[in-house]
Amino acid sequence: MKIVIMGPQGCGKSTQAEKISEKLNIPHISSGDIFRKLEKSSTDLGKRVWKALSSGELVSDEDTMLVIGEELSKGEYSSGFILDGFPRNLYQAEHSPFNPDIVLYLDVPESVSFERLIERKREDDTPELIKRRLSEYHKNTAPVLDYYRKSGILKTFNGAQKIELLNKELMEALNT
Q1: What is the number of structural domains in the chain?
Q2: Which of 3, 86, 113, 125 could anchor a disulfide with 82, C-beta 3.0 to 4.6 Å?
Q3: In terms of residue numbers, what domain contains 13?
Q4: pTM of the model as a whole
Q5: Residue 23 in domain
Q6: Cβ neighbours of residue 131 under 8 Å, at least 6 residues apart?
Q7: What is the pLDDT of residues 27-71, one digit of tens each?
């Protein structure tokens, strides 16, 4: 099963993706983790990723598609996966290297996202960068949600609820 989990930064995507990964025995792929690893490399791609992330920007569509396509070409994903952090805009959704079976959207108020991001104390989680990323996310993601809604594969959940309750709802939506 190819699962996409979406939601603004701080909505709990990674937490839920890890739980689903364990329960379904499929790998969890975090585009953010892939980008953070790449930004530490000395390659041209790594330098472009670092420049984008350090300024609070999103990685370009071209670089994102390259990174995701390369990652998904690995054999470990042939039986399925849960992917968080991709797609970030309509172009990426329309040109994705795979067709998701289901898209799980974790909807949370911006204030909840902001609070959760500040609490996790990551280097790239300054108040200014968080506000910029959340603004970009909401601007670019609405068309993606519509795209998947029209495809009939989008399921929306309250991402602000307790972790265990949300996970139960997600697993029910995945028919497990």
Answers
A1: 1
A2: 3
A3: 2-170
A4: 0.89
A5: yes
A6: 114
A7: 999 998 898 888 788 889 888 988 888 887 778 999 999 999 999
